[in-house]
Design goal:
Length: 721
């Protein structure tokens, strides 16, 4: 999991409720398994199965992912229920079948092979390994492949069902040959057969991209045959296959909207999970209607179904307030019986949506203390990230952070294979102001840094850079290892290159920079850069002397001469003239001539009328008596006050976006709260231009912007005395 630059400054339409972003919490779980065709002989041998992440099977969340298939009897025609298989053949009968294979050898007919496979598929689960390890079983598989073209389609289906019942490993080479045969026959199969074959491949756990292509092609030509069960099963296959062709998205969406009200609670959860796993988005309208329908039946939905809806909302970045508000009561009610993975996905979704609901957070935190021993490193890491991002402090949940940190120490061996989990966890802890030195030492050790830097799947050096800079500021006396200068310089360059092409060009930043320059007397007094590069966002740096007079900020060589020429002509800001007050108070005054050539007269523009009261730009700045006093008070200071101030006041002007805060609140998210804290540690005074104040001013007069920034820079300085 990485903190992406996109997360730090998302340039979104201000009135958009439906937003698509690349979530920093999502990790691809797609798997690409080989389906190479081998020679017919000497290939029917088992291969070592590819281990799943963390060495364990991804657990279900309080309900089986295939539970929806029990909602309607129609699913029996297109799915395979392993739990319904009977064990009617004992081991002695199985050996008798295998003996017949050695007698008949290549003289067997397709019907006989299918009969033998079906019987072997009925032995008890504990005896399956014995049968699969018998050489005669491999002979049976080899003979089946030799006459594969002679099988009828129903016989092929029976063979595949037998392989499922026998728990044939998904990497078994014989399966590639069967997949090829099914691909060749796809055009001859009806919709139910196509879906059944796809379901059987899923039961085997084998990726079959070529077959899915044939399936999707045939589905596109037979939409008129699809009812609710077929549609939901298709979504399930799309999700498990992690793919959906572009040409299928719109027809499937239309069909879903047509049948939406007929879907049962678990079917809705299956649709949401399919969309999430395939990383496919529906339109905003369709997604909102889907969640509306889920909300209508939420009380009848399983925990697994609710988690699937949350996953879709996390992926689609949909702020569906009625659903989120309903979770404020549903999650606390269900949390005492939920498992770790379900809790993790719920809290991760709230974090991705920047939505803080203490009822949910505290209910999940309380439940975690009882089930934390079942956490994987992945679960602990994501929950630490989520709680830290939403600003849950250690004193609010005293047992939360210690128990999750303990899991990190217990699962330390997993970080050898999944270094991203450790970095994710440590960042979440840093957001909460916690810095476990032993784990930080591990993350910044030379061996770990080299392993993370060589990762081909995730770019982790930026996370290491953030932790390294955090250690330098938060733990300056520690003996924790630090990144090499070469790595720091390389990552800084990458971040600055991105900032120059994206964040620095945002209108709200450009306008703040321009008005500050006008206010302070020139571009040498404002520097746009990353004060703390490891926190990946830009600042407008301003320096004031003891008398609150602006002084040049060190910049490029081209500006040094200009700065020295104007050093004696420093100004304390824009002079508040009668013209400016007339503009702000809508009264007329007599113009006053400016004698000092260095004083910058503000450009006065007519204030644009704001017609839409609901627009975010409709918030004006009230010209109160306090504001007038702040604008017009003298900038001269008494010697006593000046002596108590540092020789240079360093200001970090922050232009914030609404995505820096928890949803519809003024509470900063974890990363941005961390930055504020570290700017103070670095000796800066933070001057915030919050979006609810600055964005409305973007459409107001230049004079109002000048007045606002004058108040922010100088009156805030007065309040610090």
């Amino acid at each position: 999991m990485r903190i992406s630059e996109e997360e730090l400054s998302i340039n979104l339409p201000l009135n958009s409720a439906f937003r698509q972003q690349c979530s920093p919490c999502s990790i691809s779980t797609s798997r690409r398994l080989s389906s190479t065709k081998n020679t017919l002989l000497n290939t029917a041998s088992d291969r070592v199965a590819v281990p799943t992440p963390n060495g364990t099977k991804e657990p279900s969340v309080n309900s089986a992912p295939r539970a929806f298939q029990r909602c309607r009897p129609e699913y029996r025609n297109m799915t395979h229920d392993v739990s319904q298989c009977s064990s009617t053949v004992d081991l002695n009968e199985a050996f008798l079948v295998l003996h017949k294979v050695t007698v008949q050898k290549s003289n067997m007919e397709p019907s006989e092979i299918i009969n033998f496979l079906s019987k072997l598929g009925q032995i008890p689960q504990e005896q399956i390994v014995v049968v699969r390890g018998d050489k005669r079983f491999n002979m049976l598989l080899r003979y089946s492949v030799e006459i594969l073209p002679n099988f009828t389609t129903p016989q092929l289906l029976d063979a595949l069902m037998a392989f499922v019942n026998l728990s044939l490993p998904h990497s078994h080479s014989i399966l590639g040959l069967y997949e090829t045969e099914f691909c060749q026959r796809a055009c001859e199969m009806d919709l139910h057969e196509l879906l059944l074959v796809a379901d059987l491949w899923r039961c085997l756990g084998r990726a079959v991209p070529k077959y899915l292509e044939r399936l999707f092609d045939n589905v596109s030509r037979n939409f008129n045959q699809m009812g609710v069960p077929e549609l939901v099963q298709l979504f399930y296959i799309i999700g498990e296959g992690r793919r959906c062709p572009d040409t299928l998205v719109q027809p499937v969406e239309s069909l879903l909207m047509r049948h939406l009200n007929q879907l049962k609670p678990e079917e809705l959860g299956a649709v949401c999970l399919g969309l999430f796993k395939s990383q496919r988005s529906l339109s905003e309208r369709a997604t909102r209607r889907l969640v509306d329908r889920a909300l209508a039946v939420v009380e009848d939905m399983s925990d697994f179904g609710i988690v699937n809806v949350m996953k879709l909302m996390r992926f689609s970045y949909l702020d569906h307030l009625p659903w989120l508000e309903a979770m404020g009561s549903e999650v606390p009610r269900r949390a005492p019986k939920m498992e770790v993975q379900g809790l993790m996905h719920v809290i991760l979704a709230f974090s991705a949506l920047h939505y803080r609901d203490d009822r949910v957070l505290f209910a999940v935190a309380e439940r975690l203390t009882n089930v934390v021993s079942r956490c994987r490193s992945k679960d602990a890491a994501k929950m630490l990230w989520a709680f830290g991002t939403l600003g849950v402090l250690p004193n609010q949940c005293p047992n939360l952070y210690p128990c999750l940190t303990a899991i990190l120490r217990e699962r330390q061996a997993e970080f050898q294979r999944y270094p991203e989990h450790l970095l994710t966890a440590l960042l979440g802890l840093a957001f909460a102001g916690l810095f476990p030195e032993d784990l930080l030492s591990l993350a910044l050790s030379t061996e770990f840094v080299n392993r993370a830097s060589n990762s081909q799947e995730l770019e982790l050096r930026k996370d290491l850079f953030t932790l390294d800079g955090t250690v330098g500021l938060e733990l300056p006396e520690s003996t924790i290892p630090r990144l090499s200068l070469a790595i720091r310089e390389e990552v800084t360059k990458q971040l600055w290159d991105f900032a120059q092409s994206d964040i620095c060009q945002k209108p709200e930043v450009l306008e703040a920079e321009d008005v500050l320059r006008k206010l302070l007397g020139g571009e040498m007094f404002v520097r746009k850069h990353m004060i703390l590069p490891h926190l990946r966002s830009i600042d407008l740096e301003v320096h004031l002397d003891q008398n609150d007079q602006p002084i040049p900020v060190s910049s490029g060589p081209g500006q040094q001469n200009l700065a020295s020429q104007n050093l004696d002509a420093r100004i304390s800001g824009v002079t508040i003239t009668d013209d400016l007050l007339a503009q702000l108070t809508n009264t007329r005054k007599t113009p006053v001539q400016q004698s000092n050539k260095f004083l910058q007269k503000p450009e006065v523009h007519t204030v644009e009328p704001v017609r839409e009261r609901e627009s975010i730009f409709n918030v004006g700045i009230d010209l109160t008596d306090d504001l007038l006093m702040a604008l017009t008070k003298s900038r001269k200071r008494s010697p006593r006050l000046s002596d108590s101030k540092p020789s240079i006041q360093r200001l970090a002007v922050q232009v914030t976006h609404r995505n820096h805060y928890c949803y519809r609140t003024e509470q900063l998210l974890g990363l941005h709260a961390l930055k504020r804290r570290q700017l103070v540690l670095a000796g800066y005074r933070v001057v915030e231009l919050p979006h609810w104040e600055w964005f409305p001013l973007l459409r107001r007069s230049y004079a109002e912007k000048l007045a606002y920034l004058h108040c922010k820079i100088f009156s805030c300085s007065d309040s610090k005395k």
